[in-house]
Design goal:
The chain is of the alpha+beta class. It folds into two domains: 187 residues, Homing endonucleases (Endonuclease I-creI), CATH 3.10.28; 44 residues, no CATH class. The protein contains nine helices and ten strands. Helix 1 packs parallel to helix 5. The longest helix has 24 residues. The structure holds zinc ion. Zinc ion binds next to helix 9.
């Protein structure tokens, strides 16, 4: 459900009517919509709509309880500029992020580097997303697009592996084509990194048996020096 919520936040729309409210999710990939139906144990029809160049698939959900839930979590009919970040419990946070990413995120390999980004019309939404990512040791930066209408959140290089691991952990639903880009990057161009045992930061690996980032390594070294200094002093006293 957290994944679907994320996807709706990115690529869905909601219509509230007296006759019955409806959530509509659109995608170029029919398979992801079928998977959503399967996970919700529903069989809402998936329609094919012709766009200027290609087809798009549309799943319309008219389950009252679901629509009510989405509205109470902050989704509004005119969503992109007023969208509030939903209250997602931390154990479901990355499922929500992955859904949002599959709907409104981008990933590409560019000059042997990996670019991971999210777009939104709401800076408030991206700011909240950024602080929640931050709490999980994933560092990002927010840019305003030149026309001023959209904001882009980019995951910094130091955090790309952390993001890859977190996005797909225990994932039972995801867009294949986006995950493939990650898989390709980490198998081809990947620079080995380690997670510091003291501060949990991920840093580029520079030596064998490296356990700490440079900062923590220095702190640890000073601590070890102090211990051996005390030992020496005690020894001399004897
Ligand atoms: Zn460290």
């Amino acid at each position: 459900m957290a994944y679907i919520l994320g996807y709706v936040y990115a690529d869905g729309s909601i219509r509230i009517r007296n006759s019955g409210s409806e959530v509509t999710i659109k995608s170029k990939d029919k398979s992801i919509l079928s998977k959503m139906n399967f996970l919700m144990e529903s069989s809402y029809p998936i329609h094919k709509e012709l766009r200027t160049k290609n087809y798009i698939y549309v799943l319309s959900i008219s389950r009252k309880a679901l629509v009510k839930d989405l509205v109470s979590l902050g989704l509004t009919p005119k969503k992109s500029f007023t969208m509030k970040f939903p209250t997602v419990p931390s154990e479901f946070f990355f499922h929500f992020v992955r859904g949002y990413f599959d709907g409104d995120g981008h990933v590409r390999i560019l000059y042997k580097s990996l670019e991971i980004s999210f777009t939104s019309g709401s800076s408030e939404f991206l700011n909240k997303l950024q602080s929640r990512l931050d709490e999980n040791n994933i560092v990002s930066k927010i840019y305003q697009q030149s026309n001023g209408n959209y904001f882009i959140l980019k995951i910094l290089n130091v955090s790309r592996e952390e993001a890859y691991i977190a996005f797909y952990k225990d994932a039972n639903i995801y867009l294949e084509r986006k995950k493939k880009v990650f898989d390709e990057f980490f198998s081809k161009f990947h620079i080995k990194t380690i997670q510091c045992v003291d501060c949990n930061k991920r840093v580029v690996k520079t030596g064998n048996n490296q356990k700490r980032c440079q900062e923590c390594k220095n702190i640890n070294q000073r601590r070890l020096n102090r211990i051996s200094y005390k030992k020496r002093k005690n020894y001399l006293r004897k």
